[in-house]
Amino acid sequence: MIRPIATTRSATGVPTGRLAVWWVIASEIVIFGGLLGGYVMHRLGHPDWANQAANTNTWAGAFNTFVLLTSSLAAVLGHQAAEKGDGKKAANFLYLTCLGGLVFLIVKSIEWTTEIQHGMTITSNTFWSFYYTAAGLHGLHVIAGMVIMLFVAADAKKNKELQRVENIGIYWHFVDLVWIFLFPLLYIAK
Amino acid sequence: MSGPAADTHAPDAHAPHGDHPHHPEEGFIKKYLFSTDHKIIGFQYLFTGMAMALIGGFTVYVFRMQQAFPGLSVPGWGRVTAQDYNGLVTTHGSVMIFWVAMPVLIAALGNYLIPLMIGCDDMVFPRLNRLSYQLFLLSAVILIFSFFVEGGAFGGAWTSYPPLSARAEYNLTPKGAPLWLVAVAIEFVAFLLGGINFVTTMMNSRAPGMKMFDVPILVWMIVIASILFMASVGPLVAGAVMLLFDQTIGTGFYDPVRGGDPILWQHLFWFFGHPEVYVVMLPAFGIVAEVMTVFSRKKLFAYKTVLYTAIGTGVLSFFVWAHHQFIAGIDPRMANIFGVTTLLISIPVAEMMFVYIATLYGGSIRLAVPMLWALAFISEFLLGGVTGIFLGASASDIYFHDTYFVLAHFHYTFVPIAIVSVFAAVTYWFPKMFGRSMNETWGKVHFWGTIVSFNFIFIPLFITGARGDHRRIFDYTHFPDLMKSGMQDLRILATLSLVVMLSFQVIFLVNYFYSMFRGPKVGPNPWRANTLEWHAASPPPHGNFPVLPTVYRGPYEYSVEGREDDHWPQHLPN
């Protein structure tokens, strides 16, 4: 496909791809905003949910927070390498970021398995419904981010489309940020 | 505005060799089914929307026949059961909003017109654009498929309130309900992708020299509407996932017995649902601005006022949603606040209408078919707006809530938006889209037949509503109080007018498709309009312009003093 001239124009001075990523994030913010807003309203009306929340594994959540934040650092370093035109290095940092996402998902699945084995499933109580829905939706975003990142890294390795390293990084920081909200709301608030 | 102002753009736009779009010819399938050309994608949305409008029209015909003649075997359907009735009403509402108004007003016009009107060769993300249409088509297919599953199409109304929508033992559509929800959710994703494309294209790809206030109002309106959609639909996406879980795996998000809350859905739904009204309204106002200036040969009375007012309306539209819950058990103090914001929002809308009337004042008005539709939009929408005041005031809404008065009110807003303004657009841009013109006389016959019968449908329903007709009743013969004093005659009048209105659409369809192939050929600019799309050939080729234009002035410079020609196209240096 021939790229239209429209794609190469930049009347705002912000490259088109990055501009679109910001709009994607804007629309994602309201999705999580609606879900978490609904959860917070419910939580305020049900102080008894604290007993349920006490069953979440705060240490596992804290470890995952650390892992995800560290992976974001790798994404930043990847961006820095891409700015310098070093596609190979940028790709390696993106793989490292993906590794962080993978560790996050593994810890998450161990947590969920334990909880489900102890009878805390998505249908057992509305707290757990929110817990699995919110964390699950976030998990899907982690997976989507990793898949896109692998494609971007494959291109970056050949020094192609290096601007995408920054774009996927912005998205990854957003996924990170959502977790920063989820962690205290679902794990810490007891 | 005067003089070239090309400094606002990236250097590539000035490169002498960089501005000639090269687009090879493609085969039929690639060209029409898997095209990434914004104009073809616009047509795909337009024709899918028109096909869905036939479904919306057919369903309303069936259930209105049941209202007028309860128990009658409706020609083309048969006897309408209560379950059928629920499915038909739900389908009519969902189809008309999500699969007609949205795709035609935003997606079809946005895709076709934005790149042409801002002077570039395509959308910034052509493949994302194609994906957006494919997802939209998938959503329409899923919805149509749901008519044929066990239990039939979803029957919980287009607002889909739980517990009715959440529990199969209440709505009796165990498969139709989740399919409806999935179809709506996919459709939202399609429009999110489209919206991101529209906003980014408008922000980044304007022709050299086109400053913010040189952008045609319609483009602004579609962009503002896309942003409103983006900012409002998120909570409903989350809410839809929750409702889907309630329906399919047995969670209790909306079940008070299990710690949930059914009102939460109403908040999530209307936090989207009310801005959605303005999402479709703003493009309609945009169309009217384009048509009115051309056919009154006058500059738009107050460009910046319209723009700022539209933005103001958009912002305010996020603070009115709870007027749908006045009797759902919300705090009365809350109802006061939302009553005030609801009444406030009529101010910017009225302001836009005054601007348009002021545009007409002293112009050389030509009552061509698009202009008739534009004028009808203003006058009919006015009735919709004025009756909204009764519903926004929380005290009178307690009486009017869920009556036919409400129904007539929102049809007086939605029919002008989704039907009247769309006809204005379709007839106005027809010469651009197909290089031919439509028959003017049959266009006027269609216009008068549609507008007169439209009023005869909904004025009677205002009356029955004010007298107490509830919206969700399948057979009024069970309610002797509502059968007195000519109430049934009014219902019959509304139904017959509907049949008349629907039959007049045949004239339009024949005129439209005949003219597409046999209408008299016209040049690139038959209306003598200023905006850039009229500078391209009719129909525009792939790539739109032989050389991408540069813009020298605003879009509405008509009848400029001291200039012999009464229009002054945006791309002419002088």
CATH fold name of chain A: Four Helix Bundle (Hemerythrin (Met), subunit A)
Please indicate the percent range of residues of chain B in DSSP E strands (runs of 2 or more): under 5%
Query: What structural class should be given to the helix and strand makeup of chain B?
Result: mainly alpha
Strand order of the largest sheet of chain B: 1-2
The number of distinct β-strands of chain B equals: 2
User: Assembly type of the shown chains?
Assistant: heterodimer
Q: Biggest interface and its residues per chain?
A: A-B, 44 and 59 residues
Which sheet architecture does the biggest sheet of chain A show? none
Counting H and I runs of at least 4 residues, what is the number of helices of chain A? 7
Using the CA coordinates, give the radius of gyration of chain B: 24 Å
Classify the beta-strand content of chain A into a percent band. Answer: under 5%
**What is the CATH T-level topology of chain B?**
Cytochrome C Oxidase, Chain A
Indicate the mean pLDDT of chain B: 92
Which CATH top level class of chain B fits? Answer: Mainly Alpha
Could you walk me through the main structural features you see in this protein, from its secondary elements to its overall organization?
Chain A is an all-alpha fold. Chain A has a single domain, classed as Up-down Bundle (Four Helix Bundle (Hemerythrin (Met), subunit A)), CATH 1.20.120.80. Chain A has helices spanning 5-8, 16-45, 49-53, 58-83, 87-117, 126-157, 163-188. Chain A is elongated, with a radius of gyration of 19 Å. Chain A starts with a helix and ends with a helix. By secondary structure, chain B is mainly alpha-helical. Chain B has a single domain, classed as Cytochrome C Oxidase, Chain A (Up-down Bundle), CATH 1.20.210.10. Chain B has 15 helices and 2 strands. Chain B has helices at 28-32, 38-68, 82-118, 126-145, 168-171, 176-204, 217-248, 262-296, 303-316, 332-360, 369-392, 394-400, 404-434, 440-466, 487-518, and strands at residues 73-74, 78-79. In chain B, helix 3 packs parallel to helix 6, helix 6 packs antiparallel against helix 7 and helix 13 runs antiparallel to helix 14 (440-466). The radius of gyration of chain B is 24 Å and the shape is globular.
